[in-house]
Amino acid sequence: MLKIAIVGVGYWGKNLVRVFSEMSDVVSCVHNGNNENESWIKETYPEVNITTNYSKVVSNAEIDAIVIATPIGTHYELVHKALLHNKHVFVEKPLAESAKNAKFLSSLAIEKNRVLFTGYIFAYHPLLQPLFERSKSSSIIWCEFKWNKSGDLTENIFLDVISHPVAVSLALFNEDPMSTSVNYSRSVSGSTDIISLDIEFGGGVFSINVNRLTPLSGKSLQILFEDGQLFYWNEQGLYRFDRDEKEYIKRDGSEKEPLQVECERFISAINEGGEDIRTDGEFSYRVNDLIEQIEKSI
Q1: Architecture of domain 3-119+260-279 in CATH?
Q2: Among residues 289, 252, 272, which one has the least CA distance to residue 88?
Q3: Statement: 127-253 belongs to CATH 3.30.360.10
Q4: Does the pLDDT at position 274 exceed 70?
Protein backbone atom coordinates (compact mmCIF):
# COMPACT_ATOMS: atom_id res chain seq x y z
CA MET A 1 0.00 0.00 0.00
CA LEU A 2 1.29 3.43 -0.94
CA LYS A 3 2.59 5.60 1.89
CA ILE A 4 1.35 9.17 1.58
CA ALA A 5 1.99 12.45 3.37
CA ILE A 6 -0.60 15.23 3.21
CA VAL A 7 0.51 18.84 3.43
CA GLY A 8 -2.20 21.22 4.60
CA VAL A 9 -5.05 20.11 6.86
CA GLY A 10 -7.48 23.00 6.50
CA TYR A 11 -11.01 22.56 5.13
CA TRP A 12 -10.05 20.75 1.92
CA GLY A 13 -6.99 19.07 3.40
CA LYS A 14 -9.25 17.30 5.90
CA ASN A 15 -11.28 15.90 3.01
CA LEU A 16 -8.10 14.62 1.38
CA VAL A 17 -6.99 12.96 4.62
CA ARG A 18 -10.38 11.26 4.88
CA VAL A 19 -10.45 9.96 1.32
CA PHE A 20 -6.80 8.97 0.97
CA SER A 21 -6.97 7.13 4.31
CA GLU A 22 -9.52 4.80 2.76
CA MET A 23 -7.25 3.75 -0.11
CA SER A 24 -3.67 4.27 1.05
CA ASP A 25 -1.50 4.53 4.14
CA VAL A 26 -1.50 8.16 5.24
CA VAL A 27 1.55 8.19 7.50
CA SER A 28 2.06 11.90 8.06
CA CYS A 29 0.33 15.27 7.91
CA VAL A 30 2.12 18.61 7.71
CA HIS A 31 0.30 21.66 9.06
CA ASN A 32 1.06 25.33 9.65
CA GLY A 33 0.84 25.25 13.43
CA ASN A 34 -2.92 25.70 13.77
CA ASN A 35 -3.85 24.08 17.10
CA GLU A 36 -7.40 23.29 16.02
CA ASN A 37 -6.23 21.38 12.93
CA GLU A 38 -3.59 19.55 14.95
CA SER A 39 -6.20 18.46 17.49
CA TRP A 40 -8.48 17.26 14.68
CA ILE A 41 -5.76 14.98 13.29
CA LYS A 42 -4.85 13.62 16.72
CA GLU A 43 -8.48 12.88 17.58
CA THR A 44 -9.67 11.58 14.18
CA TYR A 45 -6.53 9.84 12.92
CA PRO A 46 -4.37 9.17 16.00
CA GLU A 47 -2.11 6.81 14.05
CA VAL A 48 -1.01 9.61 11.69
CA ASN A 49 2.11 11.56 12.59
CA ILE A 50 1.54 15.32 12.54
CA THR A 51 4.31 17.88 12.17
CA THR A 52 5.12 21.36 10.95
CA ASN A 53 8.44 20.19 9.44
CA TYR A 54 7.88 19.71 5.69
CA SER A 55 11.58 19.18 4.96
CA LYS A 56 11.72 16.20 7.32
CA VAL A 57 8.64 14.63 5.76
CA VAL A 58 9.60 15.17 2.11
CA SER A 59 13.06 13.68 2.73
CA ASN A 60 11.60 10.52 4.28
CA ALA A 61 12.53 7.72 1.87
CA GLU A 62 9.60 5.57 3.04
CA ILE A 63 7.01 8.05 1.75
CA ASP A 64 5.93 7.44 -1.85
CA ALA A 65 3.77 10.48 -2.54
CA ILE A 66 3.07 13.99 -1.30
CA VAL A 67 -0.46 15.45 -1.39
CA ILE A 68 -0.59 19.26 -1.23
CA ALA A 69 -3.60 21.37 -0.19
CA THR A 70 -2.11 24.71 0.78
CA PRO A 71 -2.53 28.33 -0.39
CA ILE A 72 -1.84 28.82 -4.10
CA GLY A 73 1.28 30.90 -3.54
CA THR A 74 3.01 27.95 -1.85
CA HIS A 75 2.35 25.32 -4.54
CA TYR A 76 5.42 25.86 -6.69
CA GLU A 77 7.95 25.61 -3.87
CA LEU A 78 6.29 22.60 -2.23
CA VAL A 79 5.86 20.67 -5.49
CA HIS A 80 9.39 21.52 -6.60
CA LYS A 81 10.88 20.20 -3.36
CA ALA A 82 8.79 17.02 -3.50
CA LEU A 83 9.86 16.23 -7.05
CA LEU A 84 13.51 16.85 -6.19
CA HIS A 85 13.08 14.19 -3.52
CA ASN A 86 11.61 11.81 -6.10
CA LYS A 87 8.07 11.86 -4.73
CA HIS A 88 4.90 11.48 -6.75
CA VAL A 89 2.80 14.61 -6.27
CA PHE A 90 -0.90 15.40 -6.03
CA VAL A 91 -1.44 19.16 -5.72
CA GLU A 92 -4.70 21.03 -5.52
CA LYS A 93 -5.25 23.41 -8.42
CA PRO A 94 -3.52 25.32 -9.79
CA LEU A 95 -0.12 23.70 -10.21
CA ALA A 96 1.62 27.08 -9.89
CA GLU A 97 0.92 30.80 -10.02
CA SER A 98 2.44 31.20 -13.49
CA ALA A 99 2.56 29.24 -16.73
CA LYS A 100 6.36 29.45 -16.69
CA ASN A 101 6.59 27.74 -13.30
CA ALA A 102 3.96 25.18 -14.24
CA LYS A 103 5.94 24.28 -17.35
CA PHE A 104 9.11 23.89 -15.30
CA LEU A 105 7.42 21.55 -12.81
CA SER A 106 5.90 19.52 -15.65
CA SER A 107 9.32 19.05 -17.24
CA LEU A 108 10.89 18.17 -13.89
CA ALA A 109 8.27 15.50 -13.23
CA ILE A 110 9.02 13.93 -16.62
CA GLU A 111 12.75 14.08 -15.92
CA LYS A 112 12.27 12.42 -12.52
CA ASN A 113 9.73 9.92 -13.93
CA ARG A 114 7.24 10.89 -11.22
CA VAL A 115 3.47 11.29 -11.42
CA LEU A 116 2.47 14.95 -11.22
CA PHE A 117 -1.28 15.26 -10.77
CA THR A 118 -3.24 18.50 -10.34
CA GLY A 119 -6.58 18.38 -8.54
CA TYR A 120 -9.01 19.79 -11.07
CA ILE A 121 -11.88 17.87 -9.55
CA PHE A 122 -14.51 18.56 -12.25
CA ALA A 123 -12.30 16.78 -14.78
CA TYR A 124 -12.99 13.60 -12.78
CA HIS A 125 -16.59 14.25 -11.72
CA PRO A 126 -18.47 11.00 -12.47
CA LEU A 127 -21.58 12.82 -13.73
CA LEU A 128 -19.50 14.76 -16.28
CA GLN A 129 -17.73 11.73 -17.71
CA PRO A 130 -20.52 11.03 -20.29
CA LEU A 131 -19.97 14.54 -21.65
CA PHE A 132 -16.22 14.04 -21.95
CA GLU A 133 -16.83 10.76 -23.78
CA ARG A 134 -19.46 12.26 -26.10
CA SER A 135 -17.12 15.14 -27.00
CA LYS A 136 -14.77 12.60 -28.60
CA SER A 137 -17.37 11.68 -31.24
CA SER A 138 -19.59 14.76 -31.51
CA SER A 139 -18.29 18.31 -31.76
CA ILE A 140 -19.39 20.91 -29.23
CA ILE A 141 -21.18 23.96 -30.62
CA TRP A 142 -21.67 25.85 -27.37
CA CYS A 143 -21.06 25.34 -23.69
CA GLU A 144 -21.63 27.56 -20.65
CA PHE A 145 -20.24 27.12 -17.16
CA LYS A 146 -21.96 29.24 -14.48
CA TRP A 147 -20.64 29.50 -10.95
CA ASN A 148 -22.04 31.64 -8.16
CA LYS A 149 -20.22 31.33 -4.88
CA SER A 150 -19.53 33.13 -1.65
CA GLY A 151 -16.06 32.39 -0.42
CA ASP A 152 -12.43 33.37 -0.13
CA LEU A 153 -11.75 36.82 -1.56
CA THR A 154 -8.03 36.75 -0.78
CA GLU A 155 -7.01 34.41 -3.62
CA ASN A 156 -6.74 35.43 -7.26
CA ILE A 157 -10.15 34.66 -8.83
CA PHE A 158 -8.54 33.41 -12.04
CA LEU A 159 -6.30 30.88 -10.33
CA ASP A 160 -8.72 29.96 -7.56
CA VAL A 161 -12.09 29.78 -9.34
CA ILE A 162 -11.84 30.32 -13.09
CA SER A 163 -9.10 27.70 -13.41
CA HIS A 164 -11.79 25.05 -12.80
CA PRO A 165 -14.03 25.85 -15.82
CA VAL A 166 -10.93 26.56 -17.91
CA ALA A 167 -9.74 23.03 -17.12
CA VAL A 168 -13.17 21.66 -18.08
CA SER A 169 -13.05 23.53 -21.41
CA LEU A 170 -9.64 22.08 -22.30
CA ALA A 171 -10.75 18.58 -21.31
CA LEU A 172 -13.96 18.82 -23.37
CA PHE A 173 -12.51 20.32 -26.54
CA ASN A 174 -9.13 18.58 -26.23
CA GLU A 175 -7.40 21.34 -28.22
CA ASP A 176 -5.88 24.74 -27.66
CA PRO A 177 -8.30 27.66 -28.07
CA MET A 178 -8.21 30.08 -30.98
CA SER A 179 -8.99 33.16 -28.88
CA THR A 180 -10.39 34.47 -25.61
CA SER A 181 -12.56 37.51 -24.97
CA VAL A 182 -13.82 39.06 -21.74
CA ASN A 183 -17.40 40.34 -22.05
CA TYR A 184 -17.31 42.20 -18.74
CA SER A 185 -15.58 42.14 -15.37
CA ARG A 186 -16.38 43.88 -12.11
CA SER A 187 -14.25 44.59 -9.08
CA VAL A 188 -15.97 45.16 -5.74
CA SER A 189 -13.63 43.74 -3.09
CA GLY A 190 -10.51 45.28 -4.61
CA SER A 191 -9.87 42.65 -7.28
CA THR A 192 -11.98 40.99 -9.96
CA ASP A 193 -15.06 39.38 -8.39
CA ILE A 194 -17.56 39.09 -11.27
CA ILE A 195 -16.59 38.12 -14.79
CA SER A 196 -18.07 36.86 -18.05
CA LEU A 197 -15.81 35.54 -20.80
CA ASP A 198 -15.79 33.39 -23.93
CA ILE A 199 -13.16 30.91 -25.05
CA GLU A 200 -13.36 30.15 -28.78
CA PHE A 201 -12.22 26.76 -30.01
CA GLY A 202 -12.15 25.45 -33.56
CA GLY A 203 -15.66 24.06 -33.42
CA GLY A 204 -17.45 26.04 -30.77
CA VAL A 205 -17.47 28.44 -27.85
CA PHE A 206 -17.08 27.80 -24.13
CA SER A 207 -18.62 30.59 -22.02
CA ILE A 208 -17.72 31.18 -18.38
CA ASN A 209 -19.76 33.29 -15.96
CA VAL A 210 -18.41 33.55 -12.42
CA ASN A 211 -19.63 35.63 -9.48
CA ARG A 212 -17.95 35.14 -6.13
CA LEU A 213 -19.99 37.76 -4.29
CA THR A 214 -23.35 36.00 -4.15
CA PRO A 215 -25.04 34.94 -0.90
CA LEU A 216 -26.28 31.73 -2.54
CA SER A 217 -23.83 29.32 -4.17
CA GLY A 218 -24.33 27.02 -7.11
CA LYS A 219 -22.68 25.82 -10.29
CA SER A 220 -24.01 24.49 -13.58
CA LEU A 221 -22.85 23.42 -17.01
CA GLN A 222 -25.00 23.48 -20.16
CA ILE A 223 -23.65 21.99 -23.35
CA LEU A 224 -24.96 21.68 -26.92
CA PHE A 225 -23.43 19.13 -29.27
CA GLU A 226 -23.32 19.24 -33.06
CA ASP A 227 -25.71 16.29 -33.25
CA GLY A 228 -28.36 18.40 -31.47
CA GLN A 229 -28.09 16.77 -28.06
CA LEU A 230 -28.41 19.28 -25.21
CA PHE A 231 -27.29 18.48 -21.66
CA TYR A 232 -27.46 20.30 -18.36
CA TRP A 233 -25.45 19.49 -15.24
CA ASN A 234 -25.66 20.86 -11.72
CA GLU A 235 -24.89 19.47 -8.30
CA GLN A 236 -28.15 17.50 -8.32
CA GLY A 237 -27.44 15.52 -11.47
CA LEU A 238 -26.97 15.33 -15.24
CA TYR A 239 -29.99 15.97 -17.48
CA ARG A 240 -30.65 15.48 -21.21
CA PHE A 241 -33.18 17.62 -23.06
CA ASP A 242 -35.89 15.49 -24.69
CA ARG A 243 -37.10 17.24 -27.86
CA ASP A 244 -40.32 15.26 -28.06
CA GLU A 245 -41.35 15.83 -24.44
CA LYS A 246 -39.86 19.35 -24.40
CA GLU A 247 -38.31 18.77 -21.00
CA TYR A 248 -35.12 17.65 -19.31
CA ILE A 249 -34.81 13.99 -18.34
CA LYS A 250 -32.45 13.11 -15.50
CA ARG A 251 -29.86 10.50 -16.42
CA ASP A 252 -28.69 7.75 -14.13
CA GLY A 253 -25.13 8.18 -12.98
CA SER A 254 -22.52 7.12 -10.50
CA GLU A 255 -23.07 8.25 -6.94
CA LYS A 256 -19.37 8.03 -6.23
CA GLU A 257 -17.88 11.08 -4.55
CA PRO A 258 -15.90 13.10 -7.13
CA LEU A 259 -12.95 13.46 -4.77
CA GLN A 260 -12.85 9.70 -4.33
CA VAL A 261 -12.68 9.23 -8.11
CA GLU A 262 -9.91 11.81 -8.35
CA CYS A 263 -7.82 10.28 -5.57
CA GLU A 264 -8.29 6.78 -6.98
CA ARG A 265 -7.03 8.01 -10.34
CA PHE A 266 -3.89 9.44 -8.73
CA ILE A 267 -3.07 6.18 -6.99
CA SER A 268 -3.89 4.21 -10.12
CA ALA A 269 -1.57 6.44 -12.16
CA ILE A 270 1.30 5.69 -9.76
CA ASN A 271 0.64 1.95 -9.84
CA GLU A 272 0.28 1.93 -13.63
CA GLY A 273 3.37 4.01 -14.32
CA GLY A 274 1.78 7.41 -14.84
CA GLU A 275 -0.34 6.57 -17.87
CA ASP A 276 -3.49 8.41 -18.92
CA ILE A 277 -3.60 11.30 -16.45
CA ARG A 278 -6.12 13.88 -17.64
CA THR A 279 -4.71 16.63 -15.41
CA ASP A 280 -0.98 15.98 -15.64
CA GLY A 281 1.75 18.60 -15.61
CA GLU A 282 1.42 19.50 -19.28
CA PHE A 283 -2.35 19.90 -18.97
CA SER A 284 -1.86 22.06 -15.89
CA TYR A 285 0.61 24.24 -17.77
CA ARG A 286 -1.99 24.75 -20.52
CA VAL A 287 -4.55 25.84 -17.91
CA ASN A 288 -2.10 28.36 -16.46
CA ASP A 289 -1.18 29.62 -19.91
CA LEU A 290 -4.84 30.14 -20.87
CA ILE A 291 -5.56 31.94 -17.60
CA GLU A 292 -2.72 34.34 -18.32
CA GLN A 293 -4.17 35.01 -21.78
CA ILE A 294 -7.54 35.80 -20.20
CA GLU A 295 -6.04 38.15 -17.61
CA LYS A 296 -4.12 40.03 -20.31
CA SER A 297 -7.32 40.60 -22.29
CA ILE A 298 -9.05 42.53 -19.49
Answers
A1: 3-Layer(aba) Sandwich (3.40)
A2: 272
A3: yes
A4: no
